[in-house]
Write a structure and sequence with these properties.
It comes from Nannocystis punicea. This is Dicarboxylate transport. This protein is 31% helix and 35% strand. It has 11 helices and 28 strands. It has helices at 2-39, 149-167, 235-252, 256-292, 341-353, 382-394, 397-404, 407-415, 507-513, 515-522, 535-542; strands at residues 43-45, 51-52, 57-63, 72-75, 78-79, 87-90, 95-99, 105-113, 120-128, 143-148, 179-188, 191-199, 202-214, 220-227, 231-234, 299-301, 310-321, 324-333, 376-381, 422-428, 433-435, 442-454, 463-477, 482-498, 501-504, 532-533, 553-559, 565-572. Helix 3 (235-252) packs antiparallel against helix 4 (256-292). The longest helix is centred in the N-terminal third of the chain and has 38 residues, at 2-39.
Length: 573
């Protein structure tokens, strides 16, 4: 009996030892798996790298899945987590599923794996909607123009007075010695009040009220709302009234004085009525002609000399107050018009990859109050700028502008200073995305930039994709009279991609070359090669009809009056 109990105890101990050994083997096996996983390349599998997230979520599978529990996911630099449904994890197969929020635009998604000696980061990007139809018929009114009443008096009325005086001698009643006694326009309420007085052989003075409205996509309609007294004096009027008085005296006989007075009054009233009718007829006809004149081009090249930058312009609304005149306009980019079958294929590919410009729902400040702080102001909404970037990415203009600025050559030269790698080209697959930022510029997210690298040794890295975040703002160079972009890069990531898998690559390249600092130098205010607009020359050339040599830009400032709205205010002389 005792022997049997001893055997049972030995067997139990052996069983416990076996269980302990099995547990140790399992633990060692799990450690071995993790060790093996550490050797197997870390990557993240997605449906399509750097693509729209039409359902508002991003999903990625960490490979090998054993590493998923150690990874951290950041969206736009912010760590996401928690059991609220915003982030869902399935650690059995290494899948992350993350809601990207409601704000439209690009998201920078970083999957970080901490390791001894430094983390590895696989970077993706997702484009979030809602999206606006790219070439819809009724685009939002994303551009505004405001002109101060003082600027109109100082810059517009003088040349108009000169033109009016130059035309006066051709009026038969006035004669060659005509002078302009008065010509004024007053902004009040929702109308323009005017008064004009011309004096020559006769004197004509007229005043009235004009109403302005949107009469068509390119026209502002001007209507004569009311006409004040018409003053007409001179030798012709005197002869006509005296003749009528004499005729009245002959007819009435003994009542000659009363007849003369009546004849004078009738003739004088007739002349007033005829003068008023004539002035009203001529003004109405002239205003009808003026209302039919296109004030803005139907289509304009926003980048001079580049047909792919064309956009259709249309008036949305106009308002008048004592402080000035304001108008809102829509800006709708033209559809791509490729000239070759190869370019048509590239355009179709880009259009299929981009669902349309993101709609932020940001609007311009209302037309009233319209009194600007400068002579003139131009406002642009972020949605209008995003729509242009979307269209210019689809038709290839954005990539060509980078080529003209020699970004490839400049980056290739910089790479050659510390590495054997070279840059042969940049392909733009997604438009840059803007968001309101902090009020001193707009936040910028870039993704979908594919680099063509040369000098790569060893295994083919697949596609090399760039994504990053920073900010951008227009900068005015007063010396050159030029507006150009300036900014800085806060985060820049390179990832390699093949067959839907993303993995870290060339990270030491960015650190060793201090690439972010180099890019910041390229984006610094006044840096050479950045795209810009010669606003001083454009103003001078566009206003030669007002004055010989055109108007001169005296000063310019840039501000952000509301989130997502850029305002350029100019002083003109």
């Amino acid at each position: 009996m005792a022997l049997a109990q001893d055997k049972w105890r030995l067997a139990s101990m052996a069983g416990l030892a076996g269980l302990a050994l099995a547990g140790a083997l399992l633990a060692a096996g799990r450690g071995a798996l993790i060790e093996a996983a550490a050797v197997e390349p870390f990557r993240v599998e997605v449906a399509t790298p750097h693509a729209p997230a039409l359902d508002g979520r991003w999903s990625g599978r960490v490979v090998p899945p054993e590493l998923a529990d150690r990874t951290v996911v950041r969206v736009d630099g912010r760590v996401l987590g928690g059991p609220d449904g915003h982030v869902r994890k399935d650690m059995s197969n290494g899948t992350w599923s993350i809601g990207l929020g409601d704000a439209p635009g690009l998201r920078l998604i970083e999957v970080e794996l901490p390791r001894q000696g430094g983390s590895e980061v696989a970077t993706d990007a997702a484009l979030v909607g809602p999206f606006r139809a790219r070439y819809e018929d009724a685009p939002g009114c994303g551009a505004g123009v405001r002109v101060a009443a003082g600027a109109i008096d100082r810059l517009v009325l003088p040349p108009l007075r000169e033109k009016l005086l130059a035309a006066a001698p051709s009026i038969g009643l006035l004669g060659p010695a005509t002078r302009l006694e008065e010509a004024s326009v007053t902004l009040q309420g929702d109308a323009l009040w005017f008064r004009v007085a011309l004096a020559g052989e006769h004197r004509i003075a007229v005043s009235g009220k004009l109403e302005v409205r949107v009469a068509g996509p390119r026209q502002l309609g001007v209507r004569l709302a009311s006409l004040g007294p018409v003053e007409f004096t001179g030798t012709l009027r005197t002869r006509a009234t005296l003749g009528a008085a004499a005729l009245g005296a002959v007819v009435t006989g003994p009542l000659a004085p009363l007849g003369a007075l009546a004849g004078y009054a009738l003739a004088d009233g007739y002349i007033d009525r005829r003068a008023r009718q004539e002035v009203e007829t001529q003004l109405t006809a002239a205003l009808a002609v003026a209302s039919a004149i296109p004030l803005i081009p139907e289509r304009a090249e926003l980048i001079v000399g580049e047909p792919r930058s064309r956009a259709t312009l249309a008036f949305c609304a106009v308002a008048i107050e004592s402080g000035g005149i304001a108008a809102h306009l829509s800006v709708r980019p033209d559809r791509p018009d490729p000239k070759t079958s190869q370019e048509a294929s590239r355009v179709r590919t880009r259009l299929a990859a981009i669902p349309g410009p993101a709609r932020h729902g940001l609007t311009l400040p209302p037309l009233r109050p319209v009194a600007p702080t400068a002579d003139a102001e131009v406002e642009l909404s972020l949605d209008a700028v995003d729509a242009l970037l979307d269209a210019w990415t689809a038709n290839g203009l954005l990539g060509d502008l980078m080529g003209r600025a020699q970004w490839v050559e400049r980056v290739d030269e910089a790479l050659g200073e510390w590495t054997t790698l070279g840059l042969s080209g940049i392909e733009v697959r997604l438009p840059p995305s803007l968001s309101p930022g902090t009020g001193d510029g707009w936040a910028l997210t870039i993704a979908g930039l594919r680099l063509g690298l040369t000098g790569v040794e060893g295994e083919d890295p697949g596609e090399v994709l760039v994504a990053g975040r920073g900010f951008v703002r227009p900068h005015y160079d007063a010396g050159r009279g030029r507006i150009s972009l300036a900014g800085a890069i806060d985060r820049l990531r390179l990832s390699c991609a093949r067959d839907g898998a993303l993995w870290p690559c060339f990270a030491p390249l960015l650190e060793m070359g201090d690439v972010e600092a180099r890019l910041d130098a390229l984006l610094a205010p006044g840096a050479a090669g950045l795209p810009g607009i010669e606003v001083r020359a454009l103003l001078r050339d566009g206003t030669r009809a007002l004055r010989e040599g055109g108007l001169e830009l005296a000063g310019l400032s840039i501000s952000y009056p509301t989130p997502g709205v850029l305002r350029v205010a100019a002083e003109v002389r």
